Structures are given as C-alpha cells and as structure tokens.
Amino acid sequence: MAKLLVLHGPNLNLLGSREPDVYGRATLAEIDADLSARAEAAGHALASFQSNAEHALVERVHASREEGIAFLLVNPAGFTHTSVALRDALAAVAIPFIEVHLSNPHAREPFRATSYFSDLAVGVVSGFGPLSYGLALAAAMQRLDRRDP
User: Which family does it belong to (predicted)?
Assistant: First the structure.
C-alpha cells in the first residue's frame, strides 16, 4: 500500500459553481471522494488538501515527505503560472508528481501556457475535466505498483 496526496490550488474549492463551462459541474468533494474510492479499491491510501494560500500548499508539500507520501497529484491552478515557491517545495521533497488541470491551459489565454511545474512533473494531464484527476491517479498507481513487489 502506498500513500498518495492530491493537492488542489486556489479557487478549486469553488468547483461545481465556478465557470462550469470551463471546469465542469463536479464539486471538489465529489472529485476527492471518487479518487479516494479508486485508490482504496487498488489497495492505496489517498488524502486530499486544498488551499487558496500559497504558503499552506508549500507547508503541505514539506509535510508530505515526513508522512511517507509516495506520490502526489498536483493541480496548482492559478499558481501554475506564478509560484516559484511551490515549485521549489516540490523539487526539494523529491516526491514524484503528476501535474493535473481540468481545462487545457494551452487552449486558453496565452499566459496559461506557461507552467512552472511541467518540467519537474512525471507527466501532465489536462483538458479532460474531472477525468483529468482520474487519469492522473491511474498513471500514478501504475507507476507505484510497478515499483512495489
């Protein structure tokens, strides 16, 4: 059994009501419950954390190493294009992660095409709405299961 952590960045607490034409109608609680059930069914434990505060996300990343988190799913949301601090935290703990986005940043405003995380990530899943998280989780568990006996 491996421990996974999903990090949700700013404004994702508004999912379900925030620009549903861009982000879909699923709430963050529904996404987290689905991911947790999928991970548990595969014999893994999954926790989720959302914050609108950059420092809280950085501190959660730091704590992940001490907790034995084996893999992260990270949706930096608006911090994707701005947060050197969160990027540095992920680099410092050296826990593999997949960058996740509900929308396709490359199909939106030009500034959204720049990510401070993609070059550190194992992979990037974007543009599939809530399914982006499920696809990222499947990829993370496949990598973990290959490593585990």
Answer: Belongs to the type-II 3-dehydroquinase family.
101 is catalytic: yes
Listed in sequence order, the DSSP H helices in 9-149 are 20-23, 28-41, 54-67, 84-93, 131-147
Out of 23, 44, 116, 133, pick the active-site residue. 23
Task: Find tokens 């947790």 and name the residue.
Answer: 36
Which residue ranges are tagged as binding site?
A: 75, 81, 88, 102-103, 112
- Residues belonging to the binding site for substrate are 75, 81, 88, 102-103, 112
Residue 85, SS3 per DSSP? helix
Q: Is the pTM of this model over 0.90?
A: yes
Catalytic residue (one of 44, 101, 116, 133):
101
**pLDDT of residue 21 exceeding 90:** no
Q: Of 29, 64, 26, 62, nearest to 45 (Cα)?
A: 64
